[in-house]
Amino acid sequence: MGLFDFFTKKKEQIQQEQAESLDKGLEKTKEGFFSKLSRAIVGKSRVDEEVLDELEEILISSDVGVETTVNIIRRIEARVARDKFTSTTELDSILREEIAGLLSESRSADVSGDFDTPLGVKPYVIMVVGVNGVGKTTTIGKLAAQYHKAGKKVVLGAGDTFRAAAVDQLKLWGERVGVPVIDHGMNTDPASVAYDAVKQGAETGADVVIVDTAGRLHTKINLMNELSKIKRVMQKISPEAPHEVLLVLDGSTGQNAFIQAQEFTKATDVTSLAITKLDGTAKGGVVIGISDQFKIPVKYIGVGERIEDLQVFNKRTFVDSLFKKD
């Protein structure tokens, strides 16, 4: 076997493992959604007003969100009106197309699944935000592991200095992955940690610097001021930093994730989303709703406990998995 064939086979194997992990992680969402959908269309041959009303309830109960649900229903109504007769057997494919369309409009990632950084940006600085308990620090650790595995040099900044557990947890991840963690301990200035992390990243030729921040929604003004200060001090080292502001949301909280997204998008310029804990919930529809309503690309999803279960989000793979029937 040639080297090219070896790497091609290895990549296909990884993609297959990721697809299986995604299928398993979305099991609860699929079970809840399709069992309700089957009951809604039993005995019916066409998509009529009654079926659409049922579908609306199903989408809302799957935490797709009211606005996004209304958007989907309107699109389907337009198709039914245009086609004159739409059978219930076509509903799966229509839904699949409309959901994929919404994700495309919100610029959600459509990538190969690689952990990479933009050419010419070094270090690539990611500021991670999100409330306590959503899996923020764990997501940072898994990101560091994935980037490190992809051959990238990584530096972490333990900027959630108001929670001792967050600093200690990130240091443990650093030891586990084999990447340096800049920390000043608890109750220190998070902006100072961010400054030193970006400084070390620049001086050591790091590819990626990932900076944690406090997971508090104390007041929007304080949060806004704190995140703005962190950005300003980073820019003393790297004028364009942070290159990405990643908001981590817990998918299992459903509508609470929408509220958190609202608060953080008001407080700072969020540029990407990571939605975690999708494997433990039937609320996977939250990925569709948040992506659609905030027009912020979903970049990562968490579908399990393993490092590899933090996946780069691919809208086509996600929609295919959501509608795959065993």
From TrEMBL:
Membrane-spanning residues: none
InterPro entries reported in the protein's UniProt record: AAA+_ATPase (IPR003593), P-loop_NTPase (IPR027417), Signal_recog_particl_SRP54_hlx (IPR013822), SR_rcpt_FtsY (IPR004390), SRP/SRP_N (IPR036225), SRP54_GTPase_dom (IPR000897), SRP54_N_sf (IPR042101)
Keyword annotations of the record: Cell membrane, Cytoplasm, GTP-binding, Hydrolase, Membrane, Nucleotide-binding, Receptor
Record localization: Cell membrane; Cytoplasm
Taxonomy, superkingdom: Bacteria
Gene3D superfamilies: P-loop containing nucleotide triphosphate hydrolases, Signal recognition particle SRP54, nucleotide-binding domain
Residues bound to GTP: 130-137, 212-216, 276-279
GO molecular function, one term: GTPase activity
Gene Ontology BP terms: SRP-dependent cotranslational protein targeting to membrane
The protein's Enzyme Commission number: 3.6.5.4
Listed Pfam families: SRP54, SRP54_N
Chain ranges of the SRP54-type proteins GTP-binding domain: 297-310
GO cellular component: cytoplasm; plasma membrane
Bilayer topology: Peripheral membrane protein
Enzyme's top EC category: hydrolase
The reaction(s) this protein catalyses: GTP + H2O = GDP + phosphate + H(+)
Description of how the protein assembles with itself and partners: Part of the signal recognition particle protein translocation system, which is composed of SRP and FtsY.
Function: Involved in targeting and insertion of nascent membrane proteins into the cytoplasmic membrane. Acts as a receptor for the complex formed by the signal recognition particle (SRP) and the ribosome-nascent chain (RNC).
Record family assignment: Belongs to the GTP-binding SRP family. FtsY subfamily.
Protein name as it appears in the record: Signal recognition particle receptor FtsY
Organism of origin: Siphonobacter aquaeclarae
Lineage of source species: Bacteria, Pseudomonadati, Bacteroidota, Cytophagia, Cytophagales
UniProt gene name: ftsY
